[in-house]
Amino acid sequence: MIRIFSHYVSKTAFVLLLLEILILLFSATFTSLIGLADSRGMLRAGEVYLASSIFALVIVLSMSALGMYQHRSREDIRNTLLRILPAFALGFAVLSLLVRFVPSLHFGRGSVIIFGLGAIGVLLARLVVFKSSQSALMEGRLILVGGGALARECMDLAASKIGFHQFTVVGCINVPGEQCCVPASSMLPAGLSLLAMARRYDAHEIVVSVTDRRNGAFPARQLLECALGGVRVIDAATFFERETCQIRIDSLQPSYLIYGGGFDQSFFRAASKRLFDLAASATIFVASLPLMLLTMLCIRLEDGGPVFYEQERVGRDGAPFSVLKFRSMRCDAERDGTPTWAQANDSRVTRVGHWIRKLRIDELPQMLNVFRGEMSFVGPRPERAFFVDQLNAQVPYYDIRHSIKPGITGLAQVRYQYGASVDDAVKKLQYDLYYVKNNSLFLDLLILLETVQVVLFGKGSR
Asked: Which of 84, 182, 281, 296 has the lowest CB atom count within 10 Å?
């Protein structure tokens, strides 16, 4: 894994992205330069390179928006092809709109050749990269210090084979005084030092998964020898942050948050985030205005009730504010005055509300909150004070999410299902903590692209 603007990115995914950009650039440039891409004759070189760059960028963004850089399972020709076709169709639709502003994007009779070469090249590149990423030569090998609950979670994560970065747990080193939660077959034999063990089993990394490090049996000296001997040593919190984009509460020490870096609140970050908020909100507001007008009409026609719904939420530093949404539930949804989590197939949701919640249309009016400065476009979702009080009392570090502005969308919203319980709130908090610690303009853009996928496929709505 590599870090780009504090965000962990798979080396394999990064190489795949660069390779596909080169393939798409070549397919458009080559076809244009040999005179097949324009029925009017040869284009000038500058126009060719501009059009080819825009073509590659649009296709890559379309693939990103449809989740093609989120490797979740093993790929074959059929599954890869089924993912490429919708992405190229979306890219074609976007390019058809852009051709009015950039006439050189009109490839004419060469469009079929360009898209065909691009699709074939992307398909072949993905098959090669995916096959290579499954090779033992590309697989990371690690040793766990400890055999408790944290070690068990690390082993489960390795067994899930989620993501481009594949790794294998060679085994666990027993630490006296810790309850064993892993199979006996996973324990490595005693007698060798950690460094000798790492070299014997060709391990590239050691993950410390011991919760109580004040234990006299904790091998601090041996871990130092490993670090000096060229074997990377990390703790479980860093491991989960890197591999899952979560800061796990069960393995979190206050010192990790204090000394672990991140939490950028500089003037440059605040200014760039505000500009991003305004640009993204204004663009989506203009693009979705006809849809919002239609939604307002449908809500009014269904039951004659109010179109908008205001609800108090907790913002930055715990300050309350009123969030604005399209009304998706009956007017008497909380007739007893007690806040209630929304459930799957909630009977309080109207027929129009079912669809606007599924497509996230009910969230669009919150762009007014962004313009007011009460929210960001990307950030932890704001929660009601009633639930915040409960969660602050039950969930450690929950109030950290209020150190930045809440957002219309966020990492927890695109990576996890709708939260409707304390347990869900804990799992979403782990993504929120990662965002608060590592937030950047780069991560905001990635979350925005993932949001498109969530909206298109209606993931996690209730």
From this structure: 296
Confidence bin at 40 (pLDDT 50/70/90): very low
Q: Is 67 left (phi over 0), alpha (psi -120 to 50) or beta?
A: left
293, part of any domain: yes
**C-alpha separations of 460 from 133, 238, 248, 418 in Å:** 29, 27, 21, 5
Asked if 214 and 230 count as a contact pair (C-beta separation under 8 A), the reply is no
Domain with residue 222: its CATH number is 3.40.50.720
Q: Per the domain annotation, does 422 fall within a domain?
A: yes
Q: Looking at the structure, do residues 273 and 396 belong to the same domain, yes or no? A: yes
Q: Please report whether residue 280 resides in a domain.
A: yes
Residue 190 maps to a domain = yes
Predicted confidence (pLDDT) per residue in 129-188, tens digit: 877 766 555 678 899 998 888 889 888 888 776 655 678 889 999 888 888 888 888 899
Count of structural domains within the chain: 3
Please give the residue that has the higher pLDDT: either 40 or 97.
97
pLDDT digits (tens, 9 = 90+) for 67-86: 888 765 456 677 778 888 89
Domain span holding position 335: 267-457
Q: What angle do CA 115, 116, 119 make, to 5 degrees?
A: 80
CB 187 within 8 A of CB 172: yes
Q: For 397-412, what is the mean pLDDT?
A: 92
Instruction: Please indicate, yes or no, whether residues 36 and 178 belong to a single structural domain of this protein.
Output: no
CA distance 50 to 101: 12
- Examine the domain organization and report whether 213 and 275 are in the same domain: no
Calpha distance 154→291 (Å, rounded): 45
> How many other CB atoms sit within 10 Å of the CB of residue 228?
10
Residues 46, 148 share a domain? no
Q: Does 197 share its domain with 304? A: no
Nearest to 5 by CA among 438, 446, 437, 433: 438
439 contact partners, CB below 8 Å, separation of at least 6: 6, 264, 269, 273, 378, 379, 404
Torsion sign over Cα 40, 42, 43, 49: positive
The SS3 assignment for 170 reads: strand
